[in-house]
Amino acid sequence: MENRIFQATFGSTVEAAQKTLCEALGTIERRGWIHGQEDRFAFWLCLDEALCNAVHHGNSDNPGLNVGLELFEDGLTGRAAVRDEGGGFDPERMEMPSPEALGGRGVCLMRHFADRVWYDRAKRCLMMEFSLKADAGCEPKGE
Predict the structure, then answer these.
(1) Coil, helix or strand for 69?
(2) Contact of 67 with 9, CB cutoff 8 Å
(3) Nearest to residue 131, comparing CAs of 52, 73, 85, 68?
(4) Which of 19, 44, 76, 134 is 20 to 30 Å from 63 by CA-CA measure?
(5) Rounded distance between C-alpha atoms, residue 10 and residue 67, angstroms
(6) What is the C-alpha to C-alpha distance for residues 95 and 89, in angstroms, rounded to an integer?
């Protein structure tokens, strides 16, 4: 059964996205999703890219529009849902840009580190799915 472990909504600013990112990382660390620096980097990168894309691309840096982040776990599966007020997109159509390009790598990096990345049109959110290690989803650590 899917269990929501984190939920936040914030105005579209980089500062608010970074604050939410830190809170989310703290939650997943306490829940046992993170096992070392490689995991910490992978989750940080995926969430940071998704939140920044929502702020910049989805909401065009308009602080009057909201971004939402929810984290769920279901046994050994972790999921992240990122919502913005933009029109949506298809991450499957995103391709790695040329080395000369200054941006456009975020979704490709998410697809590398997450097990699955897709846009849920019905829920209007970017979804990322992660396989968790055996002790994730058990009793929270330090709570």
Answers:
(1) strand
(2) yes
(3) 73
(4) 44
(5) 5
(6) 13
Residue with tokens 């080395």: 99
- Residue (of 1, 40, 32, 35) closest to 143 by Cα position: 32
On whether the CB atoms of residues 117 and 111 are closer than 8 A, the answer is yes
84, two tokens:
């913005």
CATH topology of domain 3-131: Heat Shock Protein 90 (3.30.565)
Residue located via tokens 């939920």: 7
Give the model confidence (pLDDT) of 92-128 as tens digits. Answer: 666 655 666 555 677 788 889 999 999 998 888 999 9
- Tell if the pTM clears 0.90, that is, is over it: no
The two three-digit tokens of residue 69, written as one number: 């982040």
